[in-house]
Amino acid sequence: MNGASRPIAILGGTGPAGMGLALRWARAGEPIIIGSRDAQRAQDAADGIKEIIGDQARVSGMENSAACAAADLLVLTVPFEGQAALLKQLKPAIRPGSILIDTTVALAAGVGGRASRTLGVWQGSSAQQAAELVPKGVAVVAAFHNLSAELLNGDENLDCDVIVCSDDPNALQLTRGLAAKIPGVRAIDGGKLENARILEQITALLVGLNIRHKGHGGIRITGLPAEAYQ
Amino acid sequence: MNGASRPIAILGGTGPAGMGLALRWARAGEPIIIGSRDAQRAQDAADGIKEIIGDQARVSGMENSAACAAADLLVLTVPFEGQAALLKQLKPAIRPGSILIDTTVALAAGVGGRASRTLGVWQGSSAQQAAELVPKGVAVVAAFHNLSAELLNGDENLDCDVIVCSDDPNALQLTRGLAAKIPGVRAIDGGKLENARILEQITALLVGLNIRHKGHGGIRITGLPAEAYQ
Questions:
Q1: Closest partner residue to B218 among A202, A215, A222, by Cβ?
Q2: Chain A residues lying within 8 Å of B213, measured CB to CB
Q3: What angle, 0 to 180 degrees and rounded to 10, lies between the N-to-C axes of helices A196-213 and A126-133?
Q4: Whole-angstrom distance, CA of residue B150 vs CA of residue A91
């Protein structure tokens, strides 16, 4: 669904979640730009991915603003406590018509609380906060909250579904296509962006299950007709 | 885990969720009391279950207060908008040391909104509201929010996990045992009762997926070690 020439910029992409997504999409042949506050750190992260999957991987690293200027498919993988500030800073650099895929979860750990609890976000969810902060005409999508970063950074197929929410049907479909490029993942249309609040809560539940049971929890949605899964 | 002589009273049990649980547990040999505001309606519901699975089924019907007086294992299956009033009414009838399993979800449909959205509950969740309303010494458990009532009322194995939350470890374990009696269900310890807020939200997500995709959605938790599943 994503044309081979359309790079994916992963903003704040040097953390475990961003690196895991970069690794999986680079393996699938997608061109990736890893964004970071520090261009050198981004470049080192890109080099790290090439070391794993080989020099044919199309992965580069840039400062976050430069990554926005070089791509119109943006994936935000910063912790919640950095989300709003980064989006405000990047606003002038985000190209009109871009798609921003928000993966943020407002875990209470970000303010010294527990990672199995969330903060209330005034707008309803982190994704809806993002939608308030991007330039007009940028479509916001919520997805990828519930994938284990540790498993993403491994080699095995994931045993997890990705529920995708957006008010923009085209951006939603494009994101489903990206999700389905991760081996083992099935992408499900989760409806409007407001439903992101539930996806974000599920991450806190999975964190709690992981702590309690020492696992890498994920979710599968059962009971939907085959055409609901991509 | 539940002794053969310990009946399960399903309060407000004549609706689809209560009937489905009654059917599955009666099939597993558990003695069931269906509770209703109207004793005759409860009795009719019990007769309906006997018609399906045969006269050997140990199912009776009683007015809700009488059901509380006859059992110390209580499952609450009323809609959210009736939950608080019913618990206040039943308070004198609930026996000390009882376990109350709350299945309530505060869907906005209860106040004329959508069933894919929830209301905010001051205490954090419907289950925590229940915990405030039961007599002292009654353990509250949250479970069974995410099972399709339609599938429960059928014959096939369910493809769904039940996450069980409670601040009382014994009540939590006993409820896991009850969940595991439903064919296909795996029961998972979800920790403290406060986590019920996430289980309740997941129901709204599944309702939305069911509407969008015309299915009977459920969830499976993946990635936990085998001993986490009962």
A1: A222
A2: 188-189, 224-225, 227-228
A3: 140
A4: 48
User: Which of B197, B199, B215 comes nearest A223 by C-beta?
Assistant: B215
**B184 with B162: CB under 8 angstroms?**
no
- What is the least distance, in Å, from the CA of B177 to any CA of chain A? 18
Contacts of B145 (CB under 8 A, 6+ apart): B103, B104, B105, B196, B199, B200, B202, B203
In terms of CA atoms, which chain B residue is nearest residue A202? B198
Tell me, yes or no, if A184 comes closer than 8 A to chain B by beta carbon.
no
The interface predicted TM-score of the complex, written ipTM, equals 0.94
What pTM value is reported for the model? Answer: 0.95
Phi, psi at A140, each rounded to 5°: -105, 135
- The DSSP line for B90-135 is HGGGSPTT-EEEE----BGGGGTS-TTSB---TTSSHHHHHHHHSP
φ, ψ at A171 (rounded to 5°)? -65, -35
Q: Does residue A212 contact residue B218 with C-beta atoms inside 8 Å?
A: no
Q: Residue range B37-62: average pLDDT?
A: 96
Q: Hey, are the CB atoms on B191 and A116 less than 8 Å from each other?
A: yes
Q: Is residue A108 a contact partner of residue A117, using CB atoms and an 8 Å limit?
A: yes
> Taking the C-alpha atoms of B51, B52, B57 and B59 in order, what is their torsion angle to the nearest 10 degrees?
-70
Decide if B137 touches A, using CB distance below 8 A: no
Residue ranges of the alpha helices (H) in chain A? 16-27, 39-53, 64-69, 80-90, 126-133, 149-152, 169-180, 196-213
Cβ-defined contact of B215 to A225 (cutoff 8 Å): yes
Contact A223 B151 (CB under 8 A): yes
Helix (H, G, I), strand (E, B) or coil at A97: coil
Which tens digit of pLDDT belongs to each residue from A5-44? 689 999 999 999 999 999 999 999 999 999 999 999 999 9
A220 contacts B222 by C-beta, under 8 angstroms: yes
Q: Where are the alpha helices (DSSP H) in chain B?
A: 16-27, 39-53, 64-70, 80-90, 126-133, 149-152, 169-180, 196-213
Residue A219, φ and ψ in degrees, nearest 5: -130, 150
